[in-house]
Structure prediction request, 261 residues.
Amino acid sequence: MNVFRLRRGRSPLLISLPHDGSFIPEELAQSMVPSARTAPDTDWWVSQLYGPIAEALDASLIVPSYSRYVVDLNRPPDDTSLYPGQNTTGLCPTVQFSGEPVYLPSHEPSPGAIQERVQRYWQPYHEALRDEIARLRGRHGRMLLWEGHSIVSTAPYLFDGELPAFNLGTVSGSSCRATTQAALVEALEGQDRFTWVANGRFKGGYITRHYGKPGDGVEAVQLEMAQSCYMDERSGSWDSERAAPAMTMVDTLIRAALSAA
Prediction:
């Protein structure tokens, strides 16, 4: 199985969906508790949500095959915490969003096993990211890296209460220009269907923080969506009626950021 699939577009936009993958190799699944073997913390359906948008905008789109439980592509390779002092999950998660363990007792990956996963799965994805960013920046001078994520709307282990529908992360404004963030905020303020916040609980993961360098022509934005926006969280099924307005809003945001960037 390929580590990822990449659609190369011609516009100055790269959409990255690092938690869309859900495949867990059988030899790893056998070391996990039953509830973890179904990869419950996947960003379900985000490739279906972003695929038509990428095609309409002729954007590049990179989507992994493997679950974040194999290795989290949006964590630093040295596993430094992105949110010190807060509950979170790591490079090779050992705890689920529910707070339950990922692995059976004494089956957590060793440091050597973690490094093997980094080399086998993490590095190829990031090499492709770097190459595609360089290609688009070389073609256009500036480019936008859009990080598409989703998460359950309630996860007491990670955050209090119910998450806003749209959670923009620009690393407190450092991963994109001020005009780009202002355009995104203006687009969200201009609608009343979805709740939203900018740089709240989710300020941007490793990819947004590492690659977002607006002074060098690379602007990065992370959007963490509550899964209740586009799917039935109980059954895990795609909900076309919910998804349609959510996709329209995402399209509006990306176009606003592109125009500003």
Summary: Residues 230 and 245 are 8 Å apart (CA to CA).
